[in-house]
TrEMBL record:
Keywords: DNA-binding, Transcription, Transcription regulation. It comes from the Bacteria. It comes from Rhizobium rhizogenes NBRC 13257. Gene3D superfamilies: Homeodomain-like (1.10.10.60). Residues 222-322 form the HTH araC/xylS-type domain. This is HTH araC/xylS-type domain-containing protein. Pfam families: AraC_binding_2, HTH_18. SMART domains: HTH_ARAC (SM00342). SUPFAM superfamilies: Homeodomain-like. InterPro entries: AraC-bd_2, AraC_XylS_family_regulators, Homeodomain-like_sf, HTH_AraC, HTH_AraC-typ_CS. GO terms for molecular function: DNA-binding transcription factor activity; sequence-specific DNA binding.
Length: 331
């Protein structure tokens, strides 16, 4: 059974190969699904398209084979949770299993075979967006294929971070759809995920990316902060900030690290936390903490409350109840 969900989303529950083929064709690229055994298969699949990427969540039982190839350039990335999948691509074969991320250029994908129980998260990323961000990071246009390595270790620090962000995207786009209501957070997560790939998975431009950029002057940092202040409630990315400050992304990152002791996006998060704090002080007590948090791009209420308490010494609900009696330090 298939049904539409809000936000360019689709879901499938069942064992009909033709129906599942239709769903996958609409989500990714023309696809054909076939059962490998007389007993067939069962599938639970959710997919949401948002920003420059799509996020899928799947659970399978039985045996099935996917035949799928995209005409335009897209990366298919698997983050396995359990079980294995055999992937064939351009005369190469990969085993997708827990602890190992797999990156496939969908123009060269042949098929994917799953036998037994399997759960995974998947990402579809438009290669044009990856090229755009990489060009901004290198501060120069690039041409040709990126040639991302087909596998990366999900057990290392960067891999664990990639898995966590993918899980947040899958949860925030599927379960409560909170990220669809918070474009600022969605944009930051999507861009951050691509940066994690480019900075930690080997590719043709890794050497150029590793070279130390020139540091921007404090004038450029001031421009960046002014831009952040003027667009706090908007879904701005690090690329937007770099463009406004008239330096490249890497230069901006190094400059903030030197002059502010943190990344540009961490600084932006602090500014948004301050804005949420001001709103909590001034708001009518009937206003919800969740509404204020979401306004400023915080979609995970528990994490927002914890970070707020670290900054202001009390929970946001206390500030909201206390209103104008709360001091500048939150107490």
């Amino acid at each position: 059974m298939q049904r539409e969900k809000p936000g360019s989303s689709l879901t499938f529950r069942g064992n009909d190969a033709d129906e599942f083929s239709e769903i996958l064709s609409r989500c990714k690229a023309p696809a054909r699904v076939e059962a490998l055994r007389d007993a067939g298969f069962s599938a639970e699949y959710d997919f949401v398209a948002a920003e420059a990427l799509g996020v899928g969540r799947a659970a399978y039982q039985g045996g099935l084979r996917f035949h799928q190839k995209a005409e335009d350039s897209k990366f298919l990335i698997y983050v396995p949770l359990s079980g294995a999948a055999m992937i064939s691509s351009s005369n190469r074969h990969h085993v997708s299993e827990p602890g190992k991320g797999t990156i496939i250029d969908m123009t060269s994908l042949s098929d994917v075979v799953i036998e037994g129980d399997r759960e995974h998260l998947s990402l579809i990323i438009n290669q044009n967006e990856v090229v755009r961000l990489l060009s901004a990071m290198l501060e120069q246009p690039i041409s040709g294929s990126i040639d991302l390595a087909p596998e990366f270790d999900l057990r290392l620090e960067a891999g664990l971070a990639f898995s966590r962000v993918t899980t947040i995207l899958a949860t925030g786009l599927n379960d409560d759809a909170s990220l669809l209501q918070s474009p600022a957070a969605l944009s930051c997560l999507s861009t951050g995920l691509i940066h994690l790939l480019l900075e930690n998975v080997p590719h043709r431009f890794s050497g150029a990316l590793a070279r130390q950029p020139a540091l921007p002057s404090p004038r450029h940092i001031r421009r960046a902060i002014d831009f952040m202040q003027a667009n706090l409630s908007q879904p701005i990315s690090i690329g937007d900030i770099a463009q406004a400050s008239q330096v490249g992304i890497r230069s901006l990152q190094e400059g903030f690290k030197r002059f502010k002791g943190m990344s540009p996006m961490a600084y932006l998060t602090n500014l948004r936390m301050e804005a949420a704090h001001r709103d909590l002080i001034m708001a009518n007590p009937a206003t919800s903490v969740a509404a204020i948090a979401q306004k400023w791009g915080f979609t995970h209420l528990g994490r927002f409350s914890g970070d707020y308490r670290k900054s202001y010494g009390c929970l946001p609900s206390h500030t909201l109840r206390s209103g104008h009696s709360v001091g500048a330090d939150g107490r």
